[in-house]
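During the no-cost extension, the postdoctoral fellow (Dr. R.K.) reprocessed legacy sequence entries with the updated structure-token encoder. One reprocessed record is reproduced below for audit purposes.
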Amino acid sequence: MPVKATSKIKLSRAAQVRRYREALPELLPPTADVIFKILFGDERNLDILADFLSAVLGFRIAQSAITLLDPHLRRNRPDDKLGILDIKLKLKDGKMVDLEMQVGNLDSIFKRIEYYISDMTVRQLKKSDKYHKLLPVVGIMVLKDTILPKTKRFHCEFVMLEKTEHFALHELRAFHTLELSKLPEGKSGKLEDWLRFINSEKREDYMALAQKSKPMKRALAVLEEASADPRVRDEYVYQLMVEADDMARKDYYRKKGLEEGIAQGMVQGIAQGMAQGMAQGMVQGIAQGMAQGRAEGKAEGKAEGMAEIIALVEKGVPLEEAKRLLGVR
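Re-encoded structure tokens follow.
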């Protein structure tokens, strides 16, 4: 029996993989980790990386000025914790650069950004090294979603400035955000063109952009070659499946938490209602008891008073005089 169950699970997974494969586009999206890494993190494509970095940083960078620090092309699986998601490199002028493509998973994104930059800073120094050896670190994050709703600008650069007069404390860290959701319509420029290329989905859009520069034409050729590679397509499929599993897991725990919260709220509500009902009943019971006691006391007092008046009258005391003596009106 266990063997049959396992076989059924494997068949189901295989069917799922097959469906994902059949639904894949001809050209895989550059926003996918595996494609982004091939385009910008492969030593064979330093000309593409150099042109993109020049557009982001605002000065010309030659491909010979770039040294990749983690020239590993792919992970075995998207959920491999040893896999490298970002691209680390060093420029000839000494700058350390961390480049990443981010789609979803924006939890604690700003803290994670700070951690990445700090980690690249700390790792530069070995034991007994002096602080003057520290090199500037530049973080660049391309984002599919919006993380800075306070501005409409798609490209923001953050540095360490004095709060009032805004002068720089140092140039050891800078961070660039590139939000694809904010790309302006109709505006063309080197950086805008690169971001449109990364965000494109249709072949005609890639081809139109490829006419604008030699590096972008090369990028389209690399994209076509990578998209035709069965290994790359399989890795992209597994990435999609991991993301779908993660979303399903989050939805399950969110739904479970909501159901448990409702159940707990109902139990607490019933308990509180019973306690309040008992307290209110006690208050009403005491009030009714006091009122009833007062009424009965008055009736008994009135009966006793009448008996005393009758006794005096029988002894010959006039009625009005008997009432006066007993204080009855």
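Residues 66 and 210 are 23 Å apart (CA to CA). The longest strand covers residues 96-102. The remaining legacy entries will be reprocessed before the final report is submitted.
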